[in-house]
Specification:
By secondary structure, the protein is an alpha+beta fold. It folds into 2 domains: about 10-250, Jelly Rolls; about 255-360, Jelly Rolls. Helices cover about 15% and strands about 35% of the residues. The protein has helices at about 20-25, 35-40, 75-80, 80-90, 125-130, 160-170, 230-235, 245-250, and strands at about 5-10, 10-20, 45-50, 65, 105-110, 115-120, 135-145, 150-155, 175-180, 185-190, 195, 200-205, 215, 255-260, 260-270, 275-280, 285-290, 295-305, 320, 330-345, 355-360. Strands 1, 4, 14, 15, 16, 17, 18, 19, 20 and 21 form a 10-stranded antiparallel sheet that branches. A 6-stranded antiparallel sheet has the order 2-3-5-12-7-10. Strands 9-8-11 form a 3-stranded antiparallel sheet, with no helix packed on it. A hairpin with a 4-residue loop joins strand 15 and strand 16 (about 275-280). The two termini are about 20 Å apart.
């Protein structure tokens, strides 16, 4: 058994970052906290809530923030054979990804400015190019300024030659498909689909454990520290019918399960992770029993009071519930609680049963 544990976010400076991550994640921010230290250097664009990336990526491993293993990293647990089995259970090999690290990367992104238009490689590309890693992801919109946009996909009538010409002429946006950004919206972004997060949007991003990004266009920034990767991007880019645009939304068709106390909305179900949103009414008691694969809770709103933890979980708190644990009991806060729940796939089941939740 391995008790559920909290993790410490890692803040990342980004040229496009904003000023909302600290207030969103840290209710009582002080000058000595990690967010303020990061912000003193430049804009903060990302908070990595779950990360276990290769050692070549600086500060790419999440620290454990509670329990007997506090101070260790998630990577440390994955290197210990006994703890690794307790943490991962049946998810040790899942989704076609054999990894020595925890097979999930979870972030909060704050776009103060537009992000680059980019694309990520699939498994075939990363097999041929060992220094790249497959990346598929989803965005869940936490907040958005009026009129804010997201960009996903290229118009199906556009050819590769036409796409390259639009990039060269700085008119790529003319052929991209835009979506209004609204709180509660979910966008599935599989490998090969070009995309960009527009200015004024705060999202939770759940993805496979990769930081490989190929920039196609960067809004004319011409920043030497942010070179374009056009050749690699065009090799990975899906166009025309290959994008399967109609099915991108099918993957996030809501399947809302209601009871008197909780509503569970299925957001995406993929071969690498399943993501749901739980809306729990005030003071509802919940119990989570282990289900044989890891589950990650990220509090999106309100509070959750866990019996085994000294402090309530607030917005942004991220809790890992190992595949084999003795149970977690608690109660939603007085104003209700909203939780983003990410479950690693179980090879013995065709689907997970809403992350193992029971109303206590």
């Amino acid at each position: 058994m391995l008790d559920p544990f909290l993790v410490q976010p890692i803040f990342r400076n980004r040229v496009w970052g904003g000023d909302r991550l600290g207030p969103w994640l840290t209710p009582t921010s002080t000058s000595s906290d990690p967010y303020q230290q990061c912000r003193s250097r430049s804009a903060v664009g990302e908070a990595w809530l779950i990360a276990d990336l290769p050692a070549t990526i600086l500060d790419g491993r999440t620290a454990i923030a509670s329990g007997e293993d506090a101070g260790l990293t998630l990577h440390d647990l994955m290197q210990n054979p006994v703890q690794r089995r307790a943490l991962m259970g049946r998810a040790l090999s899942q989704g076609g990804l054999e990894t020595a690290g925890f097979p999930l990367l979870l972030k909060i992104l704050d776009a103060g400015q537009n992000l680059s238009v980019q694309v990520h490689p699939d498994l075939n590309y990363s097999t041929l190019h060992p220094h790249s890693h497959m990346k598929s992801e989803m965005w869940f919109v936490l907040d958005a300024n009026p009129g804010a946009l997201l960009y996903r996909g290229i118009r199906p009538d556009i050819t590769r030659a036409q796409c390259e010409r639009h990039i060269q002429q700085d008119t790529l946006l003319e052929i991209m498909i835009t979506h209004p950004a609204r709180r509660g919206d979910c966008f599935w972004l599989p490998s090969g689909i070009c995309h960009a997060l527009g200015a004024g949007v705060l999202v939770a991003e759940v993805q496979t454990p990769s930081d490989t990004t190929f920039r196609m266009w960067d809004w004319g920034r011409n920043d030497p520290a942010r070179p374009l990767d056009l050749a690699a991007a065009m090799e990975c880019l899906l166009l025309g019918e290959e994008q399967n645009l109609a099915n991108l939304d099918r993957a996030r068709t809501p399947n809302v399960v209601h009871s008197d106390s909780i509503a569970i909305e299925g957001l995406v179900r993929t071969e690498w992770f399943d993501v749901e949103r739980w809306s729990v009414k005030s003071n509802t008691p919940l119990r989570h029993d282990c289900i044989g694969v890891p589950v990650v809770w990220t509090i999106l709103d309100g509070q959750f009071h866990a019996d085994s933890l000294p402090h309530p979980l607030h917005r942004g708190s991220t809790l890992i519930l190992p595949a084999n644990h003795s149970g977690l009991q608690g109660r939603a806060g007085t104003e209700g609680t909203e939780i983003l729940v990410t479950t690693l796939p179980d090879p013995l089941k065709s689907s997970t049963e809403f992350g193992g939740v029971r109303i206590a």
